[in-house]
Amino acid sequence: MSVALGTTRPLPVRTTPIGDPGDLLASLPRTAPYAWIRHGEGLVGWGEAARVAVPPGPGRFAWAREWLGSVFGDAHITDTVGTPGSGPVAFGSFTFDEDAPGSVLVVPQAVLARRGGQAWLTTIGDTHLETITPITDPGRIRYGDGSLGAPAWERVVAQAARRIRDGELEKVVLARDLLAVAERPIDVRLLLTRLAHRYPECYTFSVAGLVGATPELLIRRTGQEIESLVLAGTTPRGTGPGDDFSRGAALFASTKDRHEHECAIASVRQALAPLCSSLTTPDEPELLVLPNVQHLASHVHGRLADGASVLDVVAAMHPTAAVGGTPTRTAINVIRELEGMDRAGYAGPVGWIDAHGDGEWGIALRSGIIQGRRARLFAGGGIMGDSDPASELAEAQAKFRVMQYALEG
């Protein structure tokens, strides 16, 4: 049972340095694992010292920060490591749509972490290390249509492109879901292990049943320094090195994809500028090559002007044009009208925050919601006026392969 810090007696939080723990994911028990891993570094957690369902609405991030302030403020913290991610940490997932329920924050009872040559263990209260059981395979996977089948989704893409050509908006990001049913209960640890090994450049995450590997870093805050990785514009990988090169070159030269990327960069710049004393965005994107797709990518760096926490920055940035569209409010209304499904945590912020306001938050792409033997997978893409529905469907199918691989191996 969860115990909210500060509701009874302040619980002791202790962070101590440890030797190299090896594979962080191998230390997770089966029950409710939490994770944020890239290149083998990051944080994993288990147990619940505190958990809260964040109320929906435009003030949800402020509400979350206030709740965390009371939770962390009431704790008795002993932290001999003193680095971002040490001390008490909350993992969180926020729904894409601010009006949808389902956002959650969890403070695990135990967090194991490694970064930059340091490793540490944080425990809250009388934490008993759970027994590590063998990872199990889910067996055969059956797939079925989600909210819309492929032909219906192509028609939705065509409608959106027509509305863009008519001048209603510049871009909208449309997603679809795919349902999967396994023979046996799905072990989240197996998915995390496969994702982390196959997609080391991505951020492999697990928060309250939402599991995935996102290439998109929404924001990282380290003190007053922040950084973001903006992705917009995608093409599938080729059949070989030559085809790969040609596809990458075509993506880089694509007027449609470059405009989509410029919309995304402008969205981030507009959101961050009021919070920053300095902000740097590149003149040209670069290619980010992943095992299944290639993206146009831009690194953004800034310095906060005041004491904003990472959640304040998340609140200012979400939803970006990369996952919503341009103009944002119009795009959100078009998504609600055309998409025909509840995105839940897909394309919403997912990540962690510590007691100092530092943290890392990504956009929950290449992800699924895991419940017992069932998984609901998500994928989508940016729609422009000249988007081809068949090509957009192929792009979404390529993105589904990330979680399909996690399920099937």
- Main pleated-sheet profile: 13 strands, mixed
Number of helices: 8
**What Rg, in angstroms, do the CA atoms define?**
21 Å
**Total strands:** 23
User: What is the number of independent domains?
Assistant: 1
CATH superfamily: Anthranilate synthase
| Poorly predicted ranges | 1-8
Distance between the termini: 34 Å
Overall mean pLDDT? 93
CATH fold-level label: Anthranilate synthase
CATH class bucket: Alpha Beta
| Strand fraction | 25-35%
Structural shape:
globular
- Based on secondary structure, the structural category is alpha+beta
Q: Please name the CATH architecture.
A: 4-Layer Sandwich
* Helix fraction by DSSP (H/I, runs of at least 4): 25-40%
Summarize the structure.
With 409 residues, this protein is α+β, with helices and mostly antiparallel strands.
In words, what does this structure look like?
With 409 residues, the protein is an alpha+beta fold. The protein has a single domain, classed as 4-Layer Sandwich (Anthranilate synthase). It contains 8 helices and 23 strands. The strands form 2 sheets. Strands 1, 2, 3, 5, 8, 9, 10, 11, 12, 13, 19, 22 and 23 form a 13-stranded mixed sheet that branches. Strands 4, 6, 7, 14, 15, 16, 17, 18, 20 and 21 form a 10-stranded antiparallel sheet that branches. A hairpin with a 2-residue loop joins strand 22 (367-371) and strand 23 (374-383). Helix 2 packs across helix 8 (389-408). The longest helix is centred in the C-terminal third of the chain and has 20 residues, at 389-408. It is globular and about 60 Å long. The chain starts with 11 loop residues before the first strand and ends with a helix. Residues 1-8 have low confidence and may be disordered.
